[in-house]
Amino acid sequence: HWTMEEFIGKEIARIRAICGSTGRVIGAVSGGVDSTVAAKLMHEAIGDRFHAIMVDNGVLRLNEGKQVHEMLNNDLGVNLTVVDASDLFLSRLDGIDDPEQKRKIIGNTFINVFEAEAAKIEAAAAEEAQNGDAQGEKKKGRVEWLLQGTLYPDVIESISFKGPSATIKTHHNVGGLLKDMKLKLIEPLRELFKDEVRALGRLLNIPAPLVQRHPFPGPGLAIRILGPVTREQVRILQQADAIYIEEIRRAGLYDQIAQAFAVLLPVRAVGVMGDKRTYEQVIALRAVQSEDFMTADWYVFPPEVLRRISSRITNEVAGVNRVTYDISSKPPATVEWL
Ligand code: XMP
């Protein structure tokens, strides 16, 4: 039996032994708990020889890129580059309706952008090494390692069988896509469960709101826009989702819910505004309680919270005149709609 303090000490020593005194590590961060905790641990171990890369794919939650930047860079001191690739992603996604297609485009584009950024870091590191004169200095600064935020359940799932969700729809997440890069993997969380990662995060002084953050899928809002992805649809969903989460936090319910998000339905509904008919879009709200996301129950909100959320969304988000609440559990539904 070990304590989390012992784990930190042991893992930092292991990372330092692996990387030696010169090796560099790169890793993708998403703003989620796992990649943030992994990044902070790397920073504790090897400081700025760890380079975090965040790719803004244009289908993040509202202002997420900016928030993650502030938190990782300013609050946690992690050496982070945010790559704003939203134009590239959104142009490739424009008009795409099929969910697997959306996942594929986002996955492939993510790899393109990440590899290009990794190459820049490598080139800058090589130049630094050039400036050192001793022969031994030539090797200094090579990027040899890729950080992965893999958890124990991911390890189990990939060695034993493909979980039910993997066979029904492909789950693309940021880390798994990069396995084919010619880099060796470093996986400091591979022995931990989610609740242990949260405990580790608290010990590493990662702010509580971040440690408790709801999960967010790699393909982001693209799989929550049920029809074709367009910039306008992204705008609508970002605004509705931000209001929803803000009201959940304001009501003090955020930590009771495992995951909450808004979905943009591919239908238009009739409404009335003043003395005119409107014909606008529909938002579905989803909130679930779950231990491991293999099963999930829909969350029972106090009615007045739903009332406030609905009235704010229909009042504040141009293009939406109707809000519905999803009362499906998993199974038979899944958490996401696509
Ligand atoms: P489902 O919809 O399968 O979701 O019940 C279970 C959990 O997985 C997340 N999810 C994804 N995460 N890429 C991800 O990184 C994906 O393509 C993806 N699809 C679903 C979902 O948000 C929930 O937490």
From TrEMBL:
GO cellular component, one term: cytosol
Residue ranges constituting the GMPS ATP-PPase domain according to the UniProt record: 2-213
EC nos: 6.3.5.2
Compartments, as annotated in UniProt: Cytoplasm, Cytosol
Enzyme class: ligase
Subunit structure: Homodimer. Also forms a small population of homotetramers.
The name this protein goes by in its record: GMP synthase [glutamine-hydrolyzing]
Full-sequence range covered: 206 to 543 of 543
